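Hello,

Our lab assistant flagged a job as stuck in the queue for most of the afternoon. It eventually completed. Since we weren't sure the result was trustworthy after the delay, we are filing this so someone can double-check. Below is the sequence as submitted and the structure that was eventually returned. Let us know if re-running is recommended.
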Amino acid sequence: MSPLLRNRLLVTLGPTQITITKIQRGWNPKAAESIVIDVALSEAGNKWAAPILGLQTWLEKEKFSATNLMVIVSDSFTRYGLLPWVGKLTNHSELMTLAHIHFNNLYGPPSANWIITADKGEYEKARIGCALDQTLITSIGELCKVSRLKLVSLQPNFMQVYNHWRLSIGVDALFGVLEPDQCVLASLKNGHWHSIRTIKFANFFEVDVSQLMEREILLQGLSAQVKRYLHSGNFVLLEAIRGLSNITILESQDGSNLSMFGES
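-- returned structure --
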């Protein structure tokens, strides 16, 4: 069936909030007003357990026919790492073995339970790898099966935002995606990935974002003139970072690019 003949459901999963947008099928698809569901922050265990339960509860009240599901998951549920170039790799399986070793060194034994993917990368250049808990992916798949949804896209927030804005970002840049409790910062040199790091904090309003980015520039050995870009799908954070000097804030005029991790 043509994608134009299927409805779409866009879901963003955050630690304390779920945002759901229905998009009607057709040549000029129109999005309905987003539904925002608050969930209690999981103090123990998996942070994603509460939002998955909240999504399940909402789906049980709905009926779907010919509907594609697109999911964006918070970077709170994601781990990132820069995978170095290894010239002797001959296939995808060897790349994934390397990725698991690298993530195990970065994050420890739990990486054995993660599903790791990597961007295509370029010859002799590092690539970004990202990992999601296998149980989270399985849970989303089970919800699709029960609700008769077809999962067509599952992306971490940082990668979704970068893919949206990649043509607007310079070849030498520091690019950040901000959520209420953390910021993922990645740098590019000569159009290739140079670094990626997640910086966590207890309270965004006690953080100097400009200073955070300047410190990262020094740590990564970037030029003082490097272009700085910042995005947030949180409306409160977006208002707070507007007007920061020397930083380009990435936002669409209609807000269509916002992943909406915590509206308020």
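-- support follow-up --
The delay was a queue issue, not a problem with the job. The result is valid. The chain has a mean pLDDT of 87. The helical segments are 49-59, 92-107, 134-147, 157-165, 209-219, 235-241.
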